[in-house]
Amino acid sequence: CSRSMLAAVFVLLPVFGFSFVPTSTINASRTKTHQRLATEDPSQWLDVLKWDGAEPDFDVLELTKKYTSEPGYRSFTLREIPTDYYAEDYIFRGPVVGPINRKDLVDSNNCFALEKAFPDLDRQPFGFAVDPENPFRVLFFERWKATHTGDFSLEGTPITAPATGKQSISPIMPFSITFNPEGKIIYESLTTAVDRFEGTTMGKVAVFGLLETAGVPLDNNVGNPILVFQQKLNRFFNGKAQIYSRAEDVPAWWKSKAVGAELNDI
User: Fold this and answer.
1) Is the pLDDT of residue 29 over 80?
2) Cis amide prior to 125 (ω within 30 degrees)
């Protein structure tokens, strides 16, 4: 059995609800981890992105609005966004995705080919505001809307979903972009739904919401040991659609060792 086929099998496990670990074991593991974290002092390691109290010499709001108006951004076709927006040490992090560098993120995005399955996808950003504690950081919201009018297939796996014609409306999700002093994006982050009962995607956001609409309901719960196990195996077998970058490909400023759906370590 090839490594690529094994990676595909482990990608499929959460789709079919396959589980190796009893619920009691999962809950005990989560409780133990949370107790450990609660006894440790919180570390403000992301303060490095405040750039020692500097002030930006560019309009962060206008630059963010320009960036999020790019056709490749609105359609989530990442390869079409001009590369000069990004710092060389860029990182994306979501609840169960990342840390992932720009090259790996674009490569994984290409594997999903969402522009074929959801050709009218629009991320609809709104509500832009500067973080009052970091003038290089912009916070905003997104509501993804799309129609599943094309067949979906995930490259490197047997996962497919014929077009359903269903409309996908995600719950509103918070998003943030942080710039470096040169005006390049160094960090992007999103998190889960503001209201999980909004929309048509069973509370799921971003790609997970689109896949829910397509009939491919992937697990996206932080701390789920089954999901963590699947992600690590996919990374080990070097599957085409990666959830996080290899440690040696993550910039030094990123300090957390937690990957994918793992619970916070700091």
Assistant:
1) no
2) no
223 Cβ contact partners less than 8 Å away, ≥ 6 residues apart: 30, 33, 261, 262, 263
Contact 246, 231 (CB under 8 A): no
Digit-coded pLDDT (tens) for 185-198: 999 999 999 999 99
| Dihedral over Cα of 6, 10, 11, 13: its sign | positive
Entry field: residues in the chain = 266
Residue 8: pLDDT band by 50, 70, 90 thresholds? very low
**Radius of gyration (C-alpha) of the chain in whole angstroms:** 19
Lowest mean pLDDT among 11-20, 102-111, 251-260: 11-20
**pTM for this predicted structure:** 0.84
Residue among 229, 162, 201 at smallest CA distance from 18: 229
Share of the chain above pLDDT 70, in %: 84
Hey, what are 47's tokens?
A: 């303060």
